[in-house]
Design a protein that fits this description.
This protein is of the alpha/beta class and 506 residues long. It has 13 helices and 14 strands. The chain has helices at 8-16, 31-36, 39-54, 65-80, 174-183, 220-232, 286-301, 323-331, 334-339, 374-387, 404-408, 426-432, 456-475, and strands spanning 84-107, 111-113, 116-117, 124-132, 163-168, 188-192, 215-218, 236-257, 262-272, 308-315, 340-346, 357-359, 393-395, 413-417. Strand 1 and strand 2 form a beta hairpin. Helix 3 (39-54) runs antiparallel to helix 4 and helix 7 crosses helix 13. It is elongated, with a radius of gyration of 23 Å. Residues 3-22 and 487-502 have low confidence and may be disordered.
Length: 506
């Protein structure tokens, strides 16, 4: 799962086309499928993904043998279940860290910092004076507000000798900060966290593509202390990074169509298949991939004949910036784009300290609604949870996962999310259980995201909700709109998607 900003064009789309009243789709009896989609079945696929990671240096990242083996397993399983399966190959910029980053203060007080390399950082070894941007906010405001490094004028022109820019996490893509620093003549960049609860620890972001200087991170406490020292006099640091970047790496999406269903109404049920390089990705996103794979298998075993065609999609290179889902949507002809009925997205549904998050299709709890039809998809999930006596709460369409390219194209979308690095509130702990003040997934994007990093109750509850939504949309006789229709937009304003990638912004 990634973190990105909503593209400006997407906001325009959401605000120009007001959401229709949420007239729910007709009810479908989904009990047989929900009973068939079990935690044991989901875990069976998860164990295979874990073994694949074990056999491939602990990772299933796109561009590695671990991803290729994961895709092969998914293809084999779906073909055996009777689906028409194809693999869609594409090129993407592969990145990995070869050696841990180093950051030490040389003067006036020698000390080592805990640091991390930002994705797509260049390899480098720089000793230079630290120069902060002129708009760092310390102490931080209660809500995120820093725009440090987002404008070229935030940077003092670098001195003639080697220099390192110090920027604060904030409201724009990290790559924008780094590009502005490069343009101002800096030889390396340090990004420190902003300082609010949940935004204070050492943080690893992505630049979305190769840059020409080393980029490393700091926690808020270390960054603020370093900033304070620069206000008292010159500070010199030593930055070392070692990385590998291949801009012509290849990976793929796995796409599987149900044998039946109207080919002019296609429901794309998606989950990203890749992990980060650092770990096996059993929750992020083996949980979503395993859940939709088990739904596909059990629909076949139950001989369910969908009214709409169901396309199960396992996306590659999500962790590099939603690249697989973007490639898929961009490759659709106008005619095929118009045939996409809806997109359901499942990215992390087994978080250990989980919440039942539902994407906010009607915009009731966030700045912008999804495209028309998204409100009805949200209602489908929330009504199901209500019927089971289970609480749920909205989460914003913030461009974080593979629904992004679909809603940009005007396609109704929705889905579930159990939480990533965010911190559970006391109010959430009272409703959902778990531990307040702790992350929803303490192993998010870490090597410990393994088979032990799953909450089986979350898999049971969100897995049933996913099965209910897939089958309801596959069998419904009505559409999302007052006249019963659901027509995809075939032309939408282009928007800048350059700021994609894991932890790209904020």
């Amino acid at each position: 799962m990634r973190r990105l900003a909503i593209p400006a064009g997407l906001v325009l789309l959401a605000t120009m086309v007001p959401a229709a009243p949420a007239a729910a789709v007709d009810e479908v009896n989904t009990k047989k499928l929900r009973d068939a989609v079990t935690v044991n079945g989901i875990l069976g696929h998860e164990r295979v993904f874990q073994r694949i990671a074990n056999q491939n240096d602990g990772t299933r990242a796109s561009g590695t043998p671990g991803y290729a083996a994961s895709a092969a397993y998914v293809k084999q399983t779906l073909r055996k279940a009777g689906y028409s399966v194809r693999e869609q190959t594409f090129t993407f910029p592969f990145y990995r860290e070869l050696e841990p980053a180093q950051l030490e203060q040389v003067s006036p007080t020698p000390q080592d910092y805990e640091t991390t390399t930002y994705d797509y950082s260049a390899t480098g070894d720089v000793t230079g004076v630290v120069v902060p941007t002129n708009d760092i906010i310390i102490p931080p405001t209660p809500e995120p507000s820093s725009s440090s490094g987002c404008e070229p004028e935030d940077f003092t022109p670098a001195p003639a000798e080697p220099a390192v820019a110090l920027v604060q996490r904030g409201s724009c893509d990290f790559v924008v900060k780094v590009q502005n620093a490069e343009a101002a003549g800096y030889d390396a960049v340090i990004v420190f966290n902003e300082g609010q609860p949940g935004r204070d620890e050492l943080f690893t972001g992505t630049l979305g593509g190769p840059v020409d200087v080393p980029v490393v991170g700091l926690s808020f406490a270390d960054g603020a202390a370093l900033y304070a020292q620069t206000q008292a006099g010159p500070v010199t640091v030593h930055v070392v990074t070692s990385t590998e970047v291949d801009v012509n790496a290849q990976t793929s999406n796995v796409l599987a169509d149900s044998p039946g269903g109207d080919p002019d109404k296609v429901i794309v049920v998606g989950a990203h298949l890749d992990s980060v390089v650092e770990g096996p990705g059993i929750n992020d996103n083996g949980s979503g991939s395993s859940t939709i794979l088990e739904i596909a298998v059990q629909m076949s075993k139950l001989k369910i004949n969908p009214r709409q065609k169901v396309r199960f999609a396992f996306w590659g290179a999500e962790e590099s910036g939603l690249l697989g889902s973007e490639h898929y949507v961009d490759s659709l002809s106008d005619a095929n784009l118009a045939r996409i009925y809806a997109n359901l997205n499942f990215d992390m549904v087994g978080s250990p300290n989980y919440v039942r998050f539902v994407y906010d299709g009607n915009g009731s709890d966030s700045e912008d609604a999804g495209p028309p039809g998204s409100a009805q998809i949200e209602e489908l999930f929330t009504s199901y949870f209500d019927s089971q006596g289970l609480a749920s709460e909205p989460t914003a369409f913030d461009g974080r996962s593979d629904y992004g390219p679909f809603i940009l194209a005007g396609i109704p979308a929705g889905g579930l999310f159990s939480g990533a690095e965010g911190v559970k509130t006391p109010e959430q702990a009272a409703v959902y259980g778990g531990t307040a003040g702790e992350p929803y997934d303490p192993c998010y994007h870490e090597a410990c995201d393994d088979i032990t990093n799953l909450n089986t109750q979350a898999l049971a509850e969100l897995g049933d909700a996913a099965a209910h939504a897939v089958l309801t949309l596959a069998r419904t006789k009505t559409g999302f709109f007052p006249d019963g229709s659901r027509v995809a937009r075939t032309a939408v304003a282009k928007a800048d998607l350059s700021h994609k990638g894991s932890h790209a912004v904020r």
